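Consider the following assembly input.
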Amino acid sequence: MKKRIGWFIAGGLLIAALLAGVVSSFASSSPDGLDAAARKGCTFDADDNITGGTCMAQQEQDHQLKDSPLADYGIKGIDNEFLSTGLSGVLGVAVTFAIGGGVFWLVRRRGHHEEKTDSAAGSASA
Amino acid sequence: MNGVAMHIANGIVNAQVSAVFAAIAAAALAICVWRGRADLDDRLAPMAGLVAAFIFAVQMLNFQVLPGVSGHLLGGTLAVVLVGPWVGALCVSTVLIIQCLLFADGGLTALGLNITNMAVIGTAAGYLLVAGLLRILPKTPRGVAVTAFVASIVSVVVASQAFVLEYALGGTTQLSMTTIAGTMAGAHVLIGIGEGLIAGVTVATVARIRPDLVYALRRFRTARPVATKAAQTTVGAQA
């Protein structure tokens, strides 16, 4: 008889929600390793616009979905930065678990023998 | 605003090279779905959902590695240890797709590049290290923690150099590739150490409270971890 997994998943999700919802507000706001390398060689003004030099970030273009309500890990319309970042993080954890877990559940192998139909596998690549 | 962007943005690598890597990423993910299904049962499926959600959360936690430079976990090695290489790559991809589509992080055009680097190459490098190290290290919480620590560092540096390769192929400035490779490697060794500490603590905690949920402890015991089918029959024969 295998041990149950429900409480472990619930506990793990709670920790993830706390990390994304609370601890995330204390994260470093410096550019990450990739972004820092991309900016190396250019000078920037206070608004983060390139003022001179040569760097990878010069070719950077806007994100197609930059006006999405959750863009840049905040919730549009909430001015309190702590709330905005935290709520977007909790929402992200919930959505990732729902979509990831849902797709994995749909494509899983059922019962004790391997399922032969591949109908479910197609939906995962979408 | 630049501080919250974590992955390759649009325009850094040209459209043709981005398209080639989108095709590579799609093919790799198809293989992962095909191979991963053999691993995904009623217990691994919710566990994989949790791993994806956890990686999403920890990727928000940028830590300082140098003055003006931060880093965050990529998650490939952590996923390999907990849910195996195929499902692990799918977990990291899920996070990257959601970050791109919902949080506008990592360009839509660059999604194939980001998936190739972090979900495919990073996870593959982590897997090779984990499978190799667990042949010599003990299958204890401490053993998997050390494994995850070392494998994370290598995985993160390899993933960062995959970006350098893509930039060499499709970059649009005349910058020195050696300089970019050096800058990326230097920062990512430090990021890898940070990732290794997070991954090590996480897998050791799970291994201590629920060792039955750690894929690496169940599946990498045999001498030939790559041949899943053969490994299963060996385990069955021993039982």
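The two ends of chain B are 56 Å apart (CA to CA). Ask yourself how this observation constrains the way the partners meet.
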